[in-house]
Design brief:
Chain lengths: 197, 197
């Protein structure tokens, strides 16, 4: 096996171990030592791949973001406009164990963006990408006659994204989380409201 | 001055110093040592007030939450129904330097709720309180004829709260934050949509 592929495979294994630890035990518990153990490597074996905890958090966020984007791409196959928009958000709303475990990665990532400029710009780039994708679907919805509200698309996009982001917090509440049923009712109401006149 | 009052004043001073450091330099920079220096105390002088960093983060969150609640109470004077609901959310949406600095406290707090059960329950209790307050205002809006949508109030409440929470993230983006203008347009659209038939 060529060395480059080997390196990429190992990097992936480390990220998956990082992700498993962060999702179950939290970002603070994901020390370089713990992650090496989980991935089955000797202590110190991570250093050639990730120089610091911040690099690992960044890579873990990108790993989750791309995994979500893969699901979104699959979910959108054959759809357009508001149907595609709804399918997109279903993959982001934390209604399942998979999406809830992603929320457990995203919250510590957001926390670090407050003081880490590099992570903040990465967060910004991921939002910009989703804004563009949602805006394109809204534009299709306008063409199809399913989006008729006066509110500018850029404002609608930020409302939908803010809703999805806020649910990452509300769905993780221990005693009174936003239930999957509530989240999906809320999504259907938001999608239907796009067609209000 | 009685000792109890003295103690309460000191605790308040420490919390304000904690809050200033967390809002400007982030939760990770707010070490016990740094906070003592900012509050003008000797190193170690904080221990009788807060035994650990987690206790401080909890107290700082409660400090911000109560400050927000004080502003909400003032903003709601003489209002009811959807006008009060709008005024409530204006105090939570991060459109000003004050509310944006509160977002910089809230994000690290949420991050810690992922692994700290005590903080998670505190977060839950604050959400439950706001859900009840927003639900009471929606109920007034129904009486007044300003809230007419079919969506159950509990779902509307979680949509409004998720929006407010998600904006804590979107408003802190370094390159393309949700602008105050976008946030207020979004709020007006959300309030107007409550009256859809």
């Amino acid at each position: 096996m060529p060395k480059l592929v080997d390196r990429e495979l190992r990097r992936q294994e480390i990220l998956e171990a990082t992700w498993r630890i962060m999702a179950t035990r939290g970002a603070d518990s994901a020390t370089m030592r713990e992650i090496a153990r989980e991935a089955g490597y000797a202590n110190g074996a991570l250093a050639p791949y990730f120089a610091s905890k911040d690099e690992l958090v960044e890579a873990a966020f990108l790993f989750v973001f791309e995994r979500t984007n893969d699901r979104i791409r699959a979910a959108l196959a054959g759809l357009r406009g508001v149907a595609a928009l709804r399918a997109f958000l279903v993959e982001v709303f934390p209604t399942t164990e998979t999406t809830r475990s992603e929320a457990r990665i995203v919250l510590p990532f957001w926390s670090r963006t407050v003081t880490d400029d590099r992570l903040a710009r990465l967060s910004d780039a991921s939002v910009v990408r989703w804004r563009e994708e949602l805006a394109a679907l809204l534009a299709q919805g306008r063409v199809d006659g399913d989006v008729t509200v006066d509110t500018p698309d850029a404002v609608l996009v930020d409302h939908l994204l803010a809703t999805a982001y806020g649910l990452q917090v509300l769905a993780l509440l221990p005693d009174s989380p936003s239930s999957p049923a509530t989240q999906l009712q809320l999504l259907d109401a938001a999608v239907a409201a796009l067609g209000a006149r």
